[in-house]
């Protein structure tokens, strides 16, 4: 029996409290509009709509996605290159099955998306970490002969940085020279707060080496389970064959409702609205952190996405900080939970999208109180360690 | 790049004509009732419902399924043993990934469900055919050390026979002695027209060797993409871990609507109604075949399911019969398309569920005309072969 590490969902399903990561502002999703579109379609369901859809998905939805990607992400593709799936997780899993054999080397960002690590681990791949700095994931080393690199260029998961232009070109060049593929997880690209949106890596790809993955989980709602892959033309048939054997096709009614939601302009409108809301929430978090968290946690600004990171001061450990925050009903997550290496445990992931200004300010005050308590205890034990030291002997530094 | 044979869907998506197999009577699905339930839920969507569900599925739906299976199928399970999936195809795929390594032997019914052959072929299994007779699939040979046997005991796909009681016990005994698993695809068990319903194989299993799979595709509608697995307790966690990594969970709103549809009694009512409708359609097909197809095609009766088979008389080849029928707008499929061996090509699969009495009678008349034309041509060419024979020489028999 195959034993693989699960991707934990239970925490994610709790009622979101500040600063749970990866949760969008669901209170502002236009459920009644979605209900209206669904109801209209349900009243006029045809026999052929009850029957099924192409394995690649509902054709009008694939056209809407191609058009959106062209305008918003610079992605160059025809609707025929798009396969509708249940989200980034399935996109990763099918890609791994299509391209990765046991023992193949795969580069993954570290820290990085745990769901991707789990998929390539289950595929029996040799996992190689790609360090991440202020400019995004570093460039893979050609000598490993890797089959694929998984990256989140728009908004690195979990650090929130965007990949710089030179890095993007170097990554594409690596793939071209190595005959490898890049899996571009366009994670949280929709919400960009600063400067011009960066076009997708895929838009720079002249050698059909980029597999582009998008999801509606954050832009609409996660329980919808809809996302897509944009494939290089020579992988389209093989992926379609695989999807037909693994689960045939995505549920049709949800695809039809989503195509209507997009073609009637609600999708673009919802993204615009949420971008403003999230930008405001981010700025409340940053302002509030400057006031209350100075000397405790340095919160990074981010150019995009639904979360950022904070770096702990005074030697406070991120696991202890997470527990202390929890006792005050504040949810944070150590950055190290998303790392496969032993790195300094001083980073916290902070989601800011699911809560209004009042809740964010309250969360910051509570988090500050929790961290102050830890710092006080830290300095007390440092003092008592100093006073118990015998003069002339080496101290316990 | 993994190259696997696709499971063809395109034919299935055409507007159904008699006698397309595996298509339920979708004109009679209560779409307005389904729409009402959906609309009611959509109007009161909570944030947590927008967020997601457990990997194993929506808890009230799993309870409804467990209760239905207990009453209708004799299946003994707790809701915790149920995982909601997109259908039998995903159930097969995840089971293969969980249990079957490259080179493992797997028994499959032959003729049998092509979608199952594709899954185990993609898993790199050694595929062993299980012959099927009037009593269902024959018992696997213990000496092959197989890992799993795939069977459709309620209504064999495609022959329509039900597995007899002795065969069921022998199969369970084989699994127990071999340490193998049985994948029970409870294909079309819901619609049984004769005698008492046979309880599932799973109800006889005292050694946790049966994996039971059910689907809502035929009972409700195929584009819904919902089905489930009932797992032996010791496989529950491993399958949940796999599902969390491959696609997280099934879409939640559809699961909620289905749970309501079941708990409010609509599900049981719809099955009862459709069972009567299908029994009537089957009897129209059999009566009409006796009148118009005598000497051309012997149509078997079936005790359950949405289709049956007919056996061609007069040496007419099933591929030629299929082409001749198509030219008269009648859709049949050679039984041999679902066989991996070179068997006599004289069987046709006939679906009877999707069409009313008038359409079925018209289809039978057209099919009779097509087959008569072929028989006439056959006997003409036999006569001309006889007349061109040189007396005293061995003939071309």
Compact summary:
With about 400 residues, the first copy, chain A, is an alpha/beta fold. Helices cover about 40% and strands about 15% of the residues of chain A. Chain A has helices spanning about 10-15, 30-45, 45-50, 60-75, 90-100, 115-120, 165-180, 235-245, 250-265, 265-290, 320-325, 355-385; strands at about 80-85, 105-110, 125-135, 135, 150, 180-185, 210-215, 225-230, 295-300, 305-310, 335, 345-350.
Provide structural commentary.
2 copies of one chain form a homodimer. With 397 residues, chain A is of the alpha/beta class. In chain A, 41% of the residues lie in helices and 14% in strands. Chain A contains 12 helices and 12 strands. Chain A has helices at 10-13, 31-43, 47-51, 59-73, 88-99, 114-122, 165-178, 236-246, 252-263, 266-292, 318-326, 357-387, and strands spanning 82-85, 105-110, 126-133, 136-137, 148-151, 181-185, 210-215, 227-230, 297-299, 307-312, 333-334, 347-351. In chain A, the strands form 2 sheets. The first copy, chain A, has an 8-stranded mixed beta sheet, sandwiched between helices. Chain A has a 4-stranded antiparallel beta sheet with strand order 9-10-12-11, with helices on one face. In chain A, β2, α6 (114-122) and β3 (126-133) form a beta-alpha-beta unit. The model of chain A is unreliable at 390-397 (pLDDT under 50). At the A-B interface, α1, α2, α3, α5 and α6 of A face α1, α2, α3, α5 and α6 of B.
